[in-house]
Design a protein that fits this description.
Shape: elongated
Number of helices: 25
Oligomer: single chain
Distance between the termini: 24 Å
Helix content: 40-55%
Structural class: alpha/beta
Length: about 650
C-alpha cells in the first residue's frame, strides 16, 4: 500500500465501485481472478477486519449516539489484547479528529432528524478509523454532499494521508480544488479498461503531460483537470476520442514501470515465502524489516496524529494465526445484545405499538365477552374469545417483519466489516424481544382472562393459560422473523405471509372441526402449531366447566306415553351421547341440553385435557424450529449482493 491518497476515477459505469469492492474483498457476485497482496503477502482471513471500507450510503442505526457507535465498533474489531481504557481513549481521539466532540452524545437520526449528511459521512469514516485500519477504502466519499461539505471531507482525508494513513477511494468528476488533494489516480475507461495509472502531479501537470504526449490537446489553467481528462478519453454516452487510450496505456513507459513494480513485489513475496523464518518469532533481516508481513509481526504502523498534532500510537499487532473476528462468540453476543437493547429501548413506536396491540386485543376480548355464563350459547363465545388471541399473534408477525429487515441490512454491513458474526446477531435478536413480548402477553391476559370469566378457579390452570399465551407470542414473533430471514425484502415477505396465515387459521381445528376436513388436508391439521395452542388453551378453560343451559337453549320434545324424560333418554345417554335432561322426572315437554360439561364440548374436536402439556412442548418445538430456520437463512444470506 502506498502512504498517499490513491483515487480511482473514470466515467459512470466504468467499474470504479466494482474495482473497489474487489480490492476490499467486498465483492460477493461474479468471479474474481488474479493475485492480491498486502505488504507482499497474500491476503488472510482477517483482511476485511484490519482494513476499512466506507460505502457511498451512510447506513447507521438512528437510535445510537456517535460515541456508542464508535465504541461498539472499536470493541468488536480491535484485538482482545487491547484494554478497554486504551480502546475508549482512542475513540475519544477519533471524535476530536472528526471535530464531532460536541455531537458525541447526539443520536445519529435518520436524515430528517439527528446528524447532517456531512456529519453522518464523518461518522462513517470514524467508524473505520477507530479500528486503526492498515488501508482505508472509500467509495465516492463526496457523493450526496454539497460543495462545502465535499471540501471538508476531502480535506479531512488529506489530513489522514499526511499522517500516514494509506487511502484508496473512488471519485467521479471532482472539482479542480478537490482533485489537487489526490496523489495518484487509476483512470478507467469504458468496460473498466485502464487508461492511466500513476501520479497526478502538482497542478495535474504529470497526468496532463501524459495525455498531451499521445496527441491530446493541452489543459488550460482555467479548466478543471478532472473534466479535461474525461473529455480527452471520450467519457460519457456522447463522448468521442480519436485515440485508443487503453491500447496506448499498455504501450506506454508508465505501464511498463507498473509491471516491473508488480513483478518486484511478486519476487519479494516468493523470496519471503521460501524463507520460513519470516513466519516465526525471531531475528529479522533487513528485507524482513522493509517488507513486514501483515499482522504477523509487531511492525510499526504509519504514524497517525490527533487534532492537536500529537502522535497516536497504534496498538501492537499480536502474533499467532489470523482471526476472522477479533472477539469470541460470547463477547460478540454480549455486546450485540446490549446494543440491541439500547436500540429497542429508544424505539418507542415499535414497542409501544406492540403493547397497544396487546392491550387492544385484551380489552376487546374482555368487554365483548364480558362475564360469560355457562350456557351452551356461551360455549361458542368462549371459543371465540380464545380465537381472538390468534389475531394478536398475527399482528405481532406483521410488526416483526419491517424491524427485522432493517436490522438485517445493518447486520450485513457489519458482517462485511467483520464486526460480528451471524450467530451472535441472530441469537441476540431473539433474546432482546423476549421481555417486551412477556409484558405484552401479560397485559393481554390481565385485560381478558378474568373479565371474560375464563377463570375456572384453578390457580394452576390460570398459570398454564398465561404461560401458553406468552409462549404462543414467542412462537408468532419467531415465525415473523423466519419469514423475514427467508425473504429478500419486505415486499416479498408480505406476499408470502398471507399464504401461511391462511393455512394456519383454516386448519387450527376451531373454525372447522377436524373430522370435516377433506382427507388430503388432514396432514396440515396435524402439523399446524395453531392447532396445538388452541387445544391446550381451550381444554384448560373448559376442563372444570359445568354447563347449565338457559331455557331458550334447551331442545324440547315429548316422551312416549307412560315414560318420564329420564327413562326415555336412558338408552340415548348409555350409547355415549353428550348432554343431560333438565327435567328427567317430567312426562312431557322434556328439556335436552346438548352438553353437560366443558370436556363434552371440546371432545367433539378430538381434543383431550391430558394432551395440553404435550401440546405445550410441541408449541415450544415449533418456536425452536422457527429459530433454526431463521439462523439457517441468516447463514445463507448473510452477505450483501455486490
Amino acid at each position: 500500500a502506498v502512504v498517499s491518497t490513491q483515487s480511482t476515477g473514470g466515467e459512470s459505469g466504468a467499474g470504479k465501485t466494482t474495482l473497489l469492492d474487489v480490492l476490499a474483498k467486498r465483492k460477493t457476485q461474479g468471479t474474481v481472478e488474479g493475485t492480491m497482496l498486502l505488504n507482499g503477502f497474500p491476503l488472510r482471513i482477517d483482511f476485511e477486519r484490519i482494513t476499512g471500507y466506507v460505502e457511498q450510503m451512510d447506513v447507521h442505526n438512528q437510535y445510537l449516539t456517535v460515541r456508542e457507535s464508535l465504541r461498539f465498533v472499536a470493541k468488536l474489531r480491535r484485538e482482545p489484547e487491547v484494554s478497554d481504557e486504551e480502546r475508549e481513549g482512542y475513540v475519544e481521539q477519533v471524535i476530536q479528529m472528526m471535530e464531532m466532540k460536541d455531537l458525541a452524545e447526539a443520536q445519529i437520526g435518520d436524515g430528517f432528524w439527528g446528524l447532517s449528511t456531512e456529519e453522518r459521512r464523518r461518522l462513517s469514516i470514524g467508524m473505520e478509523l477507530v479500528t486503526k485500519p492498515q488501508i482505508l477504502f472509500l467509495d465516492e466519499p463526496t457523493s450526496g454532499l454539497d460543495s462545502q461539505s465535499s471540501y471538508n471531507i476531502i480535506k479531512f482525508l488529506r489530513k489522514l494521508a499526511d499522517a500516514g494513513m494509506p487511502l484508496v477511494c473512488t471519485i467521479h468528476q471532482p472539482s479542480s480544488i478537490l482533485f489537487e488533494y489526490f496523489d495518484r489516480i487509476l483512470l478507467l475507461g469504458r468496460g473498466g479498461k485502464t487508461v492511466y495509472f500513476g501520479d497526478i502531479g502538482e497542478n495535474s501537470r504529470t497526468i496532463s503531460a501524459y495525455f498531451e504526449r499521445y496527441g491530446a490537446r493541452g489543459c488550460t489553467d482555467e479548466e478543471n483537470p478532472a473534466e479535461y481528462i474525461l473529455e480527452v478519453i471520450g467519457a460519457g454516452s456522447s463522448g468521442k476520442s480519436k485515440q485508443d487510450w487503453p491500447t496506448l496505456w499498455k504501450q506506454s513507459q508508465e505501464y511498463h514501470e507498473v509491471r516491473r513494480e508488480i513483478e518486484h513485489q511478486t519476487r519479494s513475496e516468493n523470496d519471503q515465502n521460501a524463507n520460513p523464518k519470516h513466519h516465526f518469532k525471531g531475528k529479522k533481516n533487513k528485507q524482513d524489516q522493509q517488507n513486514p508481513p501483515s499482522q504477523r509481526t509487531k511492525d510499526k504502523q504509519p504514524a497517525q496524529f490527533d487534532e492537536q498534532g500529537n502522535e497516536i500510537v497504534p496498538d501492537q499487532q499480536p502474533q499467532g494465526p489470523p482471526r476472522k473476528f477479533a472477539q469470541s462468540f460470547w463477547v460478540q453476543l454480549k455486546e450485540v445484545y446490549f446494543l440491541l437493547n439500547t436500540i429497542f429501548w429508544r424505539n418507542p413506536p415499535y414497542n409501544a405499538g406492540r403493547i397497544f396491540q396487546a392491550l387492544s386485543v385484551g380489552l376487546i376480548i374482555g368487554f365483548s365477552c364480558f362475564n360469560l355464563g355457562n350456557s351452551t350459547a356461551h360455549l361458542e363465545i368462549r371459543v371465540l374469545a380464545v380465537f381472538f388471541v390468534l389475531i394478536l399473534g398475527i399482528q405481532l408477525i406483521a410488526a416483526a417483519l419491517p424491524q427485522f429487515l432493517v436490522l438485517r441490512e445493518l447486520f450485513r454491513r457489519a458482517y462485511a466489516a467483520r464486526i460480528y458474526s451471524w450467530g451472535p446477531f441472530s441469537l441476540g435478536l431473539i433474546l432482546v424481544e423476549l421481555p417486551y413480548l412477556l409484558v405484552a402477553g401479560s397485559l393481554a391476559v390481565i385485560c381478558s382472562y378474568w373479565s371474560a370469566n375464563l377463570d375456572a378457579g384453578n390457580s394452576l390452570d390460570t398459570f398454564f393459560f398465561w404461560l401458553a399465551f406468552v409462549f404462543f407470542l414467542y412462537y408468532c414473533h419467531s415465525f415473523g422473523q423466519a419469514i423475514g430471514a427467508a425473504s429478500p425484502n419486505l415486499s416479498v415477505a408480505l406476499l408470502i405471509l398471507p399464504i401461511f396465515i391462511t393455512l394456519l387459521f383454516l386448519f387450527a381445528g376451531a373454525v372447522v372441526p377436524p373430522t370435516s376436513y377433506p382427507h388430503f388436508w388432514h396432514w396440515v391439521y396435524q402439523v399446524d402449531p395453531f392447532h396445538y395452542f388452541l387445544e391446550s388453551i381451550i381444554t384448560t378453560v373448559f376442563h372444570d366447566l359445568q354447563v347449565h343451559c338457559d331455557q331458550r337453549d334447551l331442545i324440547r320434545f315429548n316422551p312416549p306415553p307412560g315414560q318420564t324424560c329420564g327413562q326415555y333418554t336412558q338408552a340415548f345417554f348409555s350409547s355415549g351421547n353428550t348432554g343431560y335432561i333438565d327435567n328427567p322426572t317430567d312426562t312431557a315437554n322434556c328439556g335436552y341440553c346438548q352438553y353437560a360439561n366443558g370436556p363434552q364440548f371440546y371432545e367433539q374436536f378430538g381434543w383431550k385435557y391430558e394432551h395440553r402439556l404435550r401440546n405445550f412442548c410441541f408449541l415450544n418445538a415449533y418456536w425452536f424450529f422457527n429459530i433454526c430456520i431463521e439462523k439457517l437463512f441468516f447463514y445463507f444470506f448473510k452477505k450483501q449482493k455486490r
